[in-house]
Each structure stands twice: as C-alpha cells, then as structure tokens.
C-alpha cells in the first residue's frame, strides 16, 4: 500500500488562522472585561483546581474513543489498538476546522492504516458528530427547561437531526435520490461509493447502536460540562452543576451550527452571554470563558497534533 505524508503545511495554515482568531478574541474579551480586573481574577484563582479542570476534557475524549472503537468493530475494521487510538486523537486537531469537517481526515488515516475505503469510514465520522449532537441536546434540555433560554435553537437542531435519521432509515427514499444522482454523468462513476456510504450510515444509525452511542456521549460530554463548575468554584464563587452543564452543552451546539473553525466567536459568545445572564460578574465570566475554551478546545487540539506527529513518524518509518 502506498504511504503518503500527512500534509502538515495545510494543517499548520489552518492552525495559524484559528490561533490568530483566538488571539484577537482573547484581546477583545480582555478589553471588554477590563484587563486589570481580569488579572485580579487570575491572581486570586485557586490553582489547586487546575489538574481537575484539565483532566475533564481528556475523560470526554477517552469515552468518545470507546464509542469510536465500537463503531469500527461494528463495520468490521481490523486495526491495532495503537493505530486506532492515534487516529482518533489525531482527529482532535481537526476541531479547529469549520463545523469540525476536518475530522473526515480520520477517514484518510483509516485508509492508509487499515486499507478501509473512505466511503466506509466517512459515515462513521458523520454519525460520531450526530450522536455527539444528540448527547449535547439531552444535556442542554435540562437547562433549557430551567432557564427558559435557547428553546428555538434547541428545537431547530433537534428537528433537523431527527428528520435526517428518519430519512436514513427509509431505504426506498434514499435509493430513489441516489438513482437520480447516478443519472448525472459526472457523478455516475461514484455510484458504488454513494451506496457504500449509505449502507454504513444506515447500519450505524439503527436504534441499538444509536442508543448506545448517545448514552456514552451523555456521560462523556457531562465531564466537559463540569469544567465551568470547577472553574467558578476555583474563583471562590458558587455555580450550580445544572447551570454549568447547560452553558457548556448549549454553547457547543451553537458553536457547531455556526460552522466557524472550532466554533470560535460563537461558542465564546454563548458562554459569556449565558454566564452574564446568570448574574456572574463580567470579569469572572470572561475568565471562565477563556479557561473553559482552553480546556475544551485548545487542549484537545494540542493532544491531536501530538498524535499527528507520532503518526507522521510511523508513516516515514514505513517508507
């Protein structure tokens, strides 16, 4: 099998653009908060909570890896645990792409490492995102009922996702549209790929695997929801667990549908707005937003790039 190098130039360019946006965002939030007040918040911060805060997102990743491995087993992929884990964490570096669409890079890696056609693995990546979305909707629903905020966004995303899954289950409808696509000359040669994609998506979205994946997702994203809870606790203030889970899950949904790289601007704006709406001081809200996004986004990106570097070396060693 021909081995190809990972295109680090393109990845670095994507990373660079996202970092620039993040730096501008950090500067804007600092000005909004008053940088002196923000500095006082970090000076009084109880740094004994840092290990807990930084551990929560990796716990999420670990459980999502269990879900990912379950899906691979379901579609009959034969791959070593080491390669499987490296491919999964490498995908974390792609969360800074619009709508996390770059996570389909994992399909390329599976093709290189397990000789799995992209049309077979791409549905797995798609279903990953769908089940994560459902898990966050479940977590967010508790806060929406309590705080009466975000119901329109919640219903819009829920209806779209349910409609998509229902349509996938009706093979006759899907194959009707696939037949129409196959009549287009430029798409005709992709007939087998489209059908293979659909077969795997249909299998992964059946009630049993769907329920299992969503259940794992609820637990895994619950850990990320604790980030705000412990961050505010480290600042000497109290914040309910329900509010923390709601803010993280709802802002993640907003960030995802915004299609911004890593949900930048949209997720930060949602977190900050919700925290202020819940009567947190502006400087505390800004500091919490910055810590939360580092823990739930940039830490994962860093872990992902480490995974990519290790994979690149394994490719080089085989050449």
UniProtKB/TrEMBL annotation:
<keyword id="KW-0472">Membrane</keyword>
<dbReference type="GO" id="GO:0005886">
    <property type="term" value="C:plasma membrane"/>
</dbReference>
<dbReference type="Pfam" id="PF03706">
    <property type="entry name" value="LPG_synthase_TM"/>
</dbReference>
<dbReference type="GO" id="GO:0046677">
    <property type="term" value="P:response to antibiotic"/>
</dbReference>
<feature type="transmembrane region" description="Helical">
    <location>
        <begin position="153"/>
        <end position="178"/>
    </location>
</feature>
<feature type="transmembrane region" description="Helical">
    <location>
        <begin position="210"/>
        <end position="232"/>
    </location>
</feature>
<keyword id="KW-1003">Cell membrane</keyword>
<keyword id="KW-0443">Lipid metabolism</keyword>
<keyword id="KW-0812">Transmembrane</keyword>
<keyword id="KW-0046">Antibiotic resistance</keyword>
<dbReference type="GO" id="GO:0006629">
    <property type="term" value="P:lipid metabolic process"/>
</dbReference>
<comment type="similarity">
    <text>Belongs to the LPG synthase family.</text>
</comment>
<keyword id="KW-0808">Transferase</keyword>
<dbReference type="InterPro" id="IPR022791">
    <property type="entry name" value="L-PG_synthase/AglD"/>
</dbReference>
<feature type="transmembrane region" description="Helical">
    <location>
        <begin position="238"/>
        <end position="257"/>
    </location>
</feature>
<dbReference type="GO" id="GO:0050071">
    <property type="term" value="F:phosphatidylglycerol lysyltransferase activity"/>
</dbReference>
<feature type="transmembrane region" description="Helical">
    <location>
        <begin position="130"/>
        <end position="147"/>
    </location>
</feature>
<protein>
    <recommendedName>
        <fullName>Phosphatidylglycerol lysyltransferase</fullName>
        <ecNumber>2.3.2.3</ecNumber>
    </recommendedName>
</protein>
<keyword id="KW-1133">Transmembrane helix</keyword>
<feature type="transmembrane region" description="Helical">
    <location>
        <begin position="14"/>
        <end position="33"/>
    </location>
</feature>
<comment type="function">
    <text>Catalyzes the transfer of a lysyl group from L-lysyl-tRNA(Lys) to membrane-bound phosphatidylglycerol (PG), which produces lysylphosphatidylglycerol (LPG), a major component of the bacterial membrane with a positive net charge. LPG synthesis contributes to bacterial virulence as it is involved in the resistance mechanism against cationic antimicrobial peptides (CAMP) produces by the host's immune system (defensins, cathelicidins) and by the competing microorganisms.</text>
</comment>
<feature type="transmembrane region" description="Helical">
    <location>
        <begin position="290"/>
        <end position="311"/>
    </location>
</feature>
<feature type="transmembrane region" description="Helical">
    <location>
        <begin position="45"/>
        <end position="63"/>
    </location>
</feature>
